[in-house]
Amino acid sequence: MTNELTPKFNPTEVEAGRYEKWLEADVFKPSGNPDAEPYSIVIPPPNVTGKLHLGHAWDTTLQDIIIRQKRMQGFDTLWLPGMDHAGIATQAKVAARLAEDGILPQDLGREKFLDKVWEWKDEYATTIKEQWGKMGISVDYSRERFTLDEGLSQAVRKVFVQLYNKGWIYRGEKLINWDPKAMTALSDIEVIHKEIDGAFYHITYQIEGSDEFVEIATTRPETFLGDTAVIVNEKDERYKHLVGKNVILPIINRVIPILTDDHADMEKGTGVVKITPAHDPNDFEVAMRHDLPMINMMNNDGTINENGGKYEGLDRFEARKQIVADLKELGQLVDIKPVRHEVGHSERTGVVVEPRLSTQWFVKMDELAKNAIANQTTEDAVEFYPPRFNDTFMQWMENVHDWVISRQLWWGHQIPAWYNEAGEMYVGEEAPEGEGWTQDADVLDTWFSSALWPFSTMGWPDENSADFKRYFPTSTLVTGYDIIFFWVSRMIFQSLEFTGKSPFHNVLIHGLIRDEEGRKMSKSLGNGIDPMDVIEKYGADALRWFLSNGSAPGQDVRFSYDKMDAAWNFINKIWNISRYILMNAEDVSADSVSSALTKVANKTAGNVTDRWILTRLNDTARRVTEQMDKFEFGVAGHILYNFIWDEFANWYLELTKEVMFGEDEAEKDITRAVLLHVLDQVLRLLHPIMPFFTEEIFEKLPNTSGSIVVAEYPKVRPEFNDDKASEGVAMLIELITAVRNIRAEVNTPLSKAVPMLIKSEHADFFNAVSPYISRFTNPSELTIAKDLAVPEQAMSAVITGAELYLPLAGLINIEEEIARLEKELAKWQKELDLVNKKLGNERFVANAKAEVVQKEKDKLADYQEKFDTVKARIAELKEN
Fold first, then answer.
1. How far is CA 88 from the centre of its chain?
2. Residues contacting residue 625 through CB under 8 Å, at least 6 positions apart
3. What's the rounded Cα separation, in Å, for the pair 572 and 11?
4. Which residues, 6 or more positions from 691, have their beta carbon under 8 angstroms from its beta carbon?
């Protein structure tokens, strides 16, 4: 049988080879339909330092959900893939690999070392693409880009030169963050501040020509080797007599002046502050005001240089120990006080960052930031989801510093600046003509090229590029909140500057994936999870379901194997539903399904449960689409889960057995058609989230053709709406549930027939569905009427539109029944209080949609009726 599914869902079998089939069929490429609205996403490029992590799996899953849904909705979709060269991280990885063979990068030289890095890139890019395939991401590989592609390199050079010519890129000596391990400059946002144990070292400096000393405190005593002044506040009476004199630096005996500056706080410490301009940002500013010399006393690798006297060659922290010991021996170490303080660490290598005077290239950020801030008040503003991250973006842009963009690396975009022996500098997109020019050895910060990603990947600087004209600005970016500053902000201000447009319309921000205890995943904790290991055990669909349903936008999510088990169970449930439906639909054709659905819509065939499930399907499709459009994938998943598991599987499938086990073949045909249609639509709704198994089942349905990837996304079909049927089956389900609950309370199994009475204004309806009532409640006698005598000894329940009585003489304890009903009365009172409170809120009534307010009023009427009926029943039992 061609439409047969295996008895048990096996993700490995279902997903094997499926991705390759999609690629061969070119279903991921843009439709090329000029009448379709374009929708584009450029993938946040993973760097080529290794395997994908769960955070990137989260990015790609959410983007794939978006693009798959838009593709099914008829948009002309482009999802452009690519990777980032990740300068510092990749160079460090390759250097570490070479070190295993005793080879240093310097042994190879720049060109041969770069050959090794390109080999690394090819190896890990292949790995990443294989992992993308396992994740099922639907990208167009014919447009794949890399940040060091020639086209992107041309864009980088053009941007650099234009900003330089405007005076917004400059080269100068400033205090920057220095990574002694990677031996390169870092931008402010590449520095992570961590709390560590340290100490305040209290040191005395002798006043020149005097026996008097002043005391200073520092957490970095090794930096006194670079002191060029000490300062006091001009209002500080304690030190007025010292201003204009000099102090003698201990050990090295260098003389430096005592100056006044407001940076010295009279209330902090001793009020005397040492100034080390080349190794402290505040001291640098003081030095600029007083025209002080700036002495760099550290080599690139964090060792002390020739300015450090006898400490030359020592590691900075070893020098600290030696200096402290020497100061103690001299009697000029007054005290050591432990302190817990924040210290900057390199985001890339993890080592303590050294503030250091260095000649670097910088981007002036004032005008670029001003443009980005102003844009957020226009129609072209980038919409952040959740909106609070717009504040995060704005606060950073309002307080941004000049961006240091040069890196002392070999791997990356080499700075397009050349120098000659005459001291001249040339900046241009191409090398200058003539001999004697040497290109700047530094490369650009990786984020400089990544900032151009949305438009450089589309063919810019050629603004006539077909992709640039068609798909830029891109539609949506999905990324974690941890790189808003690194990447999102920079893409926005660079795009505004060079294209005059925002790079994307929407930015969906997700959180971080944490372990089950809420801890951030890290190598040091050993709590990292490899998404490929999860896929091997549970399949990509289960992982994608977890990642899309784990949290709301902007929130962190905790990884849990229990949640993975639940995701697998959900897929298996759908698999089993599908097997049941397919086993009962061997000879059904697409035409017969269409014909049967038309009859149901026209109410010339089908029963109330068919019309109910089609109405519920409409409501589900509407609500899921609304939530997906708001990027509320967790809410959309919850709606889908409840419909599939509860309404479709637990109720409709069970209710259809009354028909399928009956004798009416015409009615069976209608039910088969509805089952197939609902399953077809469920698979389409699920496909963006769980693409593999939905395609596997979809292609076996007799009423479908082609790939689900390009199948039409479900729409609301008004002809299927039947409010009366929806309300009726809701009452039927409530009735059956109430009977089951009562049986459970008095330990009466379903196999034992018991009498049942239903008192209702809807008696005609309940009589019409009495075969369902009999099948699912097993009454020995079933009495349904608008008015009937209420038995004295009976378990009862109040449901919407009816009162239910089960005379269970000998099994019922009147006192216990009254106690049970009083609990139920309290429940309805609580519901009434909640609804009354909401309706009593003038702001809610004034601002909520009319249908929302009406829904609350309907609830109020329903709860009041149930409350009154239960209350009356309690009174009857107490009287008897």
1. 25
2. 713, 714
3. 10
4. 64, 68, 136, 138, 541, 544, 708, 709
474 and 454 in contact (C-beta within 8 Å)? yes
pLDDT tens for each residue of 291-304: 999 999 999 999 99
- CA 459 from centroid of its chain's CA atoms: 28
C-alpha 84/C-alpha 45 separation (Å) is: 5
In one-letter notation, the amino acid at residue 77 is T
Alpha carbon of 121 to those of 50, 86, 150, 392, 774: distances in Å?
Answer: 9, 10, 16, 34, 68
State the Cα–Cα distance between residues 88 and 184, nearest whole angstrom: 8
Residues 664/556, Cβ–Cβ less than 8 Å: no
One-letter amino acid of 539? G
In DSSP terms, which residues pair with 274 in a beta bridge? 230
In Å, what is the CA distance from 327 to each residue of 224, 253, 539? 11, 12, 63
Place of tokens 């399949």: 539
| Whole-number Å distance between alpha carbons of 474 and 479 | 14
Q: What is the pTM of this model?
A: 0.83
Peptide bond just before 44 cis, omega within 30 deg: no
Residue 631, pLDDT score: 94
Q: What whole-number distance in Å separates Cα of residue 800 and Cα of residue 427?
A: 79
Tokens 């919409």 belong to 383
How high is the pLDDT of residue 44?
76
Calpha distance 755→734 (Å, rounded): 18
Tell me, what DSSP letter sits at residue 789? Answer: P
Residue pLDDT, tens place only, 127-163: 999 999 999 999 999 999 999 999 999 999 999 999 9
Beta 795-799 vs 779-785: how paired, if at all? unpaired
> Which residues, 6 or more positions from 445, have their beta carbon under 8 angstroms from its beta carbon?
87, 187, 403, 404, 405, 406, 407
Adjacent-strand bridge partners of 186: 177
pLDDT in tens, 723-744: 999 999 999 999 999 999 888 8
Alpha helices in 376-419 (DSSP H): 388-398
Average pLDDT value for the chain: 91
Q: How far apart are CA 805 and CA 335, in angstroms?
A: 86
Q: Which of 414, 428, 403 is nearest to 486 (CA)?
A: 403
Instruction: Look at residue 341 and tell me whether its pLDDT is greater than 90.
Output: no
The two structure tokens encoding residue 402: 């000049």
Instruction: Judge whether 67 and 41 are in contact, CB under 8 Å.
Output: yes
Please state, as a whole number, how many other Cβ atoms lie within 10 Å of the Cβ of residue 704.
Answer: 19
Measured in residues, the chain has a length of: 880
Phi, psi of 805 (to 5 degrees): -130, 135
Q: In 369-390, which positions are buried (b, 16+ CB within 10 angstroms) versus exposed (e)?
A: beebeebbeeeeebebbeeebb
* Rg of the chain taking only CA atoms, in angstroms: 36
Enumerate the β-bridge partners of residue 756.
782
Strands 229-232 and 255-260: parallel
Q: How far apart are CA 690 and CA 275, in angstroms?
A: 61
Q: What is the pLDDT of residue 1?
A: 37
- Are 741 and 642 in contact by the 8 Å Cβ rule? The answer is no
Q: Are 447 and 487 in contact (CB under 8 A)?
A: yes
